[in-house]
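Case study 2.
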Amino acid sequence: MKESINPYNGKKLYEFKELTDKELHKKIEVAHKVFQIWKNTGFDERSKLMLKAAENLKKNTDKYAKIMTQEMGKPISQSVAEVEKCAWVCEYYAQNAEEQLQDESIDTDADTSYVSYEPLGVVLAVMPWNYPLWQVFRFAAPNLMAGNVGVLKHASNVMKSAEMIQEVFEKAGFPKGCFQNLVIGSDKIPSVLENGHIRAVTLTGSKPAGASVASIAGENIKKSVLELGGSNALIVFADADIDKTVDTCVKARFQNTGQSCIAGKRLLVQADIADDFMQKFILKVRELRSGDTMDADTYIGVLAREDLAEDIEKQVNDSIQMGAKLEIGGQRNGTYFEPTVLSGVTPKMPLFKEETFGPAIGITIFKTDEEAVKLSNNSDFGLGVSIFTKDMERAKKLAPQFEEGAVFVNELVKSDPRLPFGGVKVSGYGRELSGHGIKEFMNKKTVYILK
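Prediction:
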């Protein structure tokens, strides 16, 4: 039995009965049969249904946002924004998928040669709790538009969110079985992946989870895409607009109560402005409002589980013991952890070297551009980096030097349906979103015709 527990007040919300092996097998069979029909539908039909899904999200924004907030503690205003972003990705692919998947003509010695993009089949999505809707919709929208069908193994603490995602697509008119939620534990993932009808898998989660899924997929010769977290640096150069940069860096670190793969987690500040910047940054952090997650004015909620709050508490305390200075915060109360800033953080400390999944950040000082790049790259992760400067020549020169999936200048790293999203190193491989992402689970078929 799976349970949803409200992390803000500890109350049980919902119970979900796990699928038996027989029920699970039947759902995969249904998905396979639906794929045989769905792959032959036209883009016009798919687009109409996807736009209806977007409309359904917009009409029920408050309902869906409330469920997310209750299940994982996200402040309600941020839950509303997440639902709206899901509607956006549905609309984006409804409007662009056909063009993105057009045959690609290539000049050869043939009379005609081209690459066509054809759907693979049933794709398994293994998704995390921190963005219960967005992580799933950024997979589902492009893949359903491409002619694939999806089965979802969502995190156990957000099963109501998983249930309502299936509801969104079915209410929009997608055939039953086109997108299905699987109420199963992680122990069932191997058997699902080994099922012959499952043709590929995408996972957003931890390194151990990604390594396990990739290994099973590899043994069964199935395509996988992995997004395994990040430890993004926020690099502030002396010529940056300090006030604007402070606002952006606070948002980059503390939105979603710091529980984001692409959050800015290491704050690197050039020595010339370090004191001024740190003073303004700490002041802004102090102003962040914590409280009831259902209150529209709350910016800092709770961590999704108490063990997660304990993890960030340990990382902070261990860093302090190693010489970092606590500037603000540092206290935990159950699932709540105060917005926290440490200064004097070095690359050997947990707050620098580990992924910190909560509302805490360490400040590290650098002197030169070369040192900033070296510090940023001193990480096992490679999801993204933000640099703040008024010198665009510097930005263009430095961008190729970062070992990252994305470089954002004067902005926080964010996922956008129009741009490819993904990382390198321990952050994973493959891309989601944009025209690149929609092609990940396609058969890129070469066609060569000689008269």
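The chain has two domains: 2-228+427-449, 232-416.
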